[in-house]
Amino acid sequence: MATCPLARAFKAIACLESSQTDLSDIGLYYFAIGATLKQIFDSDNNPFSSEESGQIRAIFNSRFREALSEGPTDAPISALYLHPRYVNSKLFQKNLNPLALTFVLPAQIFSRVLVFLKILLEGEWKSKENVILKKLTGREAQQSFLRQFERYARGQYPFDAPLGDGQSTLSWWTHLTRIPEGNILATLAVKVFSVRPSSMPEIRQWYMYDSASKHPERPTINFYDLDAQLLVIDLS
Question: How far is 80 from 32, CA to CA, in rounded Å?
């Protein structure tokens, strides 16, 4: 039945309360759910009427805007960009919201992430609590950050190492805090990936289970093949 993948998708949202999730999972789930909905709506066997499809699309787009487009923080979209597995994948060549009526240019996402990280950098530097940043002047910190961010976006050393099997994004970035060529950006990324989705109210409203329920396992997007859609090389 066409709605089965959709039912599994919404049921799996509860796993975002897991202590094993990070903020990048929010964007990955939204993309996968939106893509699943689009497949259903475009199918000849779409079980929904035009009116129902429109209502579902409107609800999804509203939630997407609250969490990733017009929310109080660009932390989730920044975390998604800082995910080493997907930064140079097709994810940022597509519309992050498959059901959106307008296309968001990759440059717009890059700009939002850059602004968010610059603000985070300024706050961390001013606090003088970070052992790496407190040794630098504000100008030195900003220049190092921009240089490292550019190298990360291009997949250059030290950001060219793949994410290991079973390795978390937090672990990947924590390792880079010990490498001078990547430690500034890594310091910011560690802060971003230390935040759990369950602490964000705009995400909690998606949960289909009681908030007291515990979901210790890491969520898996088994209703949509992200790797097949985003990581393969398109030869056409």
Answer: 13
